[in-house]
Amino acid sequence: MTSHVPTSLHGFCDASSHTYAAVIYIRTSCFDDSIRFTLLTARTKVAPLKAATISRLELSPALLLAETLQNVRDAMGLVDVPCYLWSDSAIVLYWLKKNPTTLKPFICNRVRRIQELTSPTRWHHIRSAQNPADCACRGITPEELLVHPLWWLGPKEKFIIYSINNDTLLSKDESEVIVSETRNTNKIITRLLRTIAIILRWLRRRRHLRKPVIVTQELDDALYTILSLEQEEHFSDEIRHLKSRSSLVSSSRILPLNPYLDENQILQVGGRIHKAELANDQRFSIILSKSTPLVKLLLQQAHKVTLHGGTQLMLAAHQGGLWEAAVKSAKHHLTRCVGTQVSWYSQLQTLTVKIEACLNTRPITPLYVDPEDKLALTPGDFLIRSPLLAVPEPDIQQIPSNRLKHWQWIRQLH
Fold first, then answer.
1. pLDDT confidence of 238, banded at 50, 70, 90?
2. How far apart are CA 40 and CA 67, in angstroms?
3. How many CB atoms lie within 10 A of CB 137?
4. Alpha-carbon distance 358 to 380, whole Å?
5. What are phi and psi of 35, to 5 degrees?
6. Are 261 and 242 within 8 A, CB to CB?
7. Pairing between strand 19-29 and 7-15?
8. How buried is 116 (Cβ within 10 angstroms: 0-12 exposed, 13-18 middle, 19+ buried)?
9. Are the beta carbons of 355 and 374 closer than 8 angstroms?
10. Which of 137, 242, 310, 311 could form a disulfide linkage to 21, CB 3.0–4.6 angstroms apart?
11. Which pairing describes strands 7-15 and 83-87: parallel, antiparallel, or unpaired?
12. Where are the beta strands (DSSP E) in 64-161?
């Protein structure tokens, strides 16, 4: 093969209720700007006798194509040659872009293997009428095969669409298939906890494995075991320092959380929120690394338990977010007004009261455009039945600072 001739590999796959096939072509651009597809290899297999849906059958030729393409590239030394893979199944293309763990076992195993061999971005959609693999899986007579242009020459260039965004719209029936083949992660985390609870029961007592009821304490112990293993994997150094009662290193990513180990040796958040009048699990949140499989399972479980609720409903408590936001606003005004200046306690107290009045005068209802309309509601209306900064104060910007009283000097800062 001439190295300076633009070359690419194109693979096609398709399935029927009896067979499935994978076909690979070499596409070359000639010197006269013409495009040529040359049949390189093809493989067919008999569909399994066990009844399966067409969508599942379409996944088998996709795996066959991925494996065949890998063998061809290795055998011919075409590892660096670009490749394009084509399927007429929109459901298969959707599965190949998903995380395999979210799919049922049959689909999960095949999708994972295909993703190991090929990149999901290499897969594109092609119409069934232009799919050469359709000739092999649907059946064709020898006489027709000898003169069949689609099989020997591949699809015409005008029917091949190289789309960066290879998303294909799914019909209602296809969407229902997607939902039916998605793994129920809520049941997975429950089953995982029950399995670990039984294992822990056997490790402790070496008996009572057939006891039908798993009590709440056993499920809690199973959850603590999973959390402990997860934290040990991601925060082993921090746990070691805390167990030895030494300080965390400054480079620790959880140092701002003021972490500590509870009685179950679970890493939790410390800090000022421990003084809040909340339950323990709300005041001391468990620390987990983000985007891990366990975190995703727990979030998905919370999402389903709350009937697909939003973030606030899934969290139940706001974890001190409301008063932390107020503290942030107060600190913002303090730093803008005082900066690096040194103030007396009485001066700082005066400024703090002023900032408190500012924050309690902010509207908590929409502002009205019409000046004749009613005023917006503020926190001050609940405190003294009127805004705290209702009366404007005289301007003192032009008075020298050495002639100002303490309370006037504090006013001049802002």
1. very high
2. 15
3. 24
4. 10
5. -105, 135
6. yes
7. antiparallel
8. exposed
9. no
10. 137
11. parallel
12. 83-87, 123-125
Give the residue from 83, 81, 85, 69 showing the smallest Cα distance to 3.
Answer: 81
Beta-strand runs (E) in 253-321: 260-261, 267-268
Rounded-to-integer distance, Cα 131 and Cα 128, Å: 5
Sign of the four-CA dihedral 167, 173, 177, 179:
positive
User: How many Å apart are CA 123 and CA 131, to the nearest integer?
Assistant: 14
What does the CA dihedral 357, 317, 297, 182 come to, rounded to 10 degrees? -90
Q: For residues 123 and 162, what is the distance between their CA atoms, to the nearest angstrom?
A: 10
Cα 51 → chain centroid: 34
Average per-residue pLDDT in the chain? 81
Q: Return the residue matching tokens 């009485």.
A: 346
At 126, is the secondary structure helix, strand, or coil? coil
Which amino acid is residue 149, in one-letter code? P
Give the side-chain half-sphere CA count within 13 A for 23.
Answer: 24
Q: How far apart are CA 256 and CA 235, in angstroms?
A: 14
pLDDT at 164: 59
% residues pLDDT > 70 (the chain): 78
7 bridge partner residues:
28
The residue extents of the domains of the chain are 7-180, 185-316, 322-413
Distance CA 64, CA 12 (A): 10
Reference 123, options 74, 167, 79, 155; nearest CA is 167
Question: How far is the C-alpha of 296 from the C-alpha of 303, rounded, in Å?
Answer: 10
> 99-113: per-residue pLDDT in tens?
888 888 899 999 999
Asked if 28 and 80 count as a contact pair (C-beta separation under 8 A), the reply is no
Contact 283, 262 (CB under 8 A): no
Residues in the chain: 414
Nearest Cα residue to 323 out of 275, 289, 261: 275
At 268, is the secondary structure helix, strand, or coil?
strand
